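A.,

Following up on our hallway conversation. Structure tokens first:
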């Protein structure tokens, strides 16, 4: 049955307008994005099929254009729209961090890093540069490696911090394996970067490990800084 034939208070768009987006299920939210279904399937049915195929919203957003297009009714246009939504969410969080105090919004930092790094199939090392008030100045991906390791050069991190006159940094890297636990190498790298940056009076405020859709692990909260 098409959504237009549903009772009005059960239609996703009407529910959102009446009660707000938070009351909708993931399938209902995705159905609003899809707008229309296919022959024999409503937009909600199609949304449930997408979530089932990719396992979760994270899996859906992480899909390649080719994987996405393998779903009947999906194609480049919908894939582009989906990626645009994801990028808008990233930029919204980045604006929040730039306008406010990063350390007073730890959840915003986590959400931003998870959206940025959590879906990547390869390992990257990134740096959030902060001003003297701990507001975000910029976020850079510095190094990209394999699934298991990446080479990080302290002098490049120091150079970047000095170039942008950063007073502090938040370090971050991802574990494509989905396991957020820090390795001995992660701990050693953190200490090496902390010592190198201290020489130019730049503080390392935290180091996060991002692993898929899980909450990023904080070195500061673990007492590893």
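Then the amino acids I'd put at each of the 225 positions:
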């Amino acid at each position: 049955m098409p959504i237009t034939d549903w009772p009005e208070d059960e239609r996703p768009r009407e529910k959102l307008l009446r009660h707000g987006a938070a009351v909708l299920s993931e399938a209902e939210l995705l159905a609003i994005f899809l707008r229309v279904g296919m022959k024999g399937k409503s937009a909600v049915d199609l949304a449930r099929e997408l979530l089932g195929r990719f396992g979760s919203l994270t899996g859906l957003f992480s899909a390649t254009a080719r994987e996405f297009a393998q779903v009947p009714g999906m194609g480049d246009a919908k894939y582009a729209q989906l990626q645009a939504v994801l990028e808008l969410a990233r930029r919204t969080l980045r604006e929040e961090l730039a306008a406010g105090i990063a350390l007073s919004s730890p959840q915003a930092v986590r959400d931003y890093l998870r959206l940025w790094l959590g879906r990547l199939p390869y390992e990257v090392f990134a740096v959030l540069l902060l001003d003297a008030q701990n507001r975000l100045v910029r976020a850079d991906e510095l190094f990209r490696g394999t699934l298991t390791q990446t080479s990080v050069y302290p002098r490049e991190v120091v150079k970047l911090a000095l170039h942008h006159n950063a007073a502090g940094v938040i370090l971050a890297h991802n574990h494509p394996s989905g396991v957020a636990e820090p390795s001995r190498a992660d701990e050693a790298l953190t200490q090496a970067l902390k010592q190198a940056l201290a020489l130019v009076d730049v503080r390392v405020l935290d180091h996060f490990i991002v692993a898929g859709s899980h909450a990023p692990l904080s070195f500061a909260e673990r007492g590893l800084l």
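The first helix runs from residue 12 to 19. Curious whether your intuition agrees with the design.

B.
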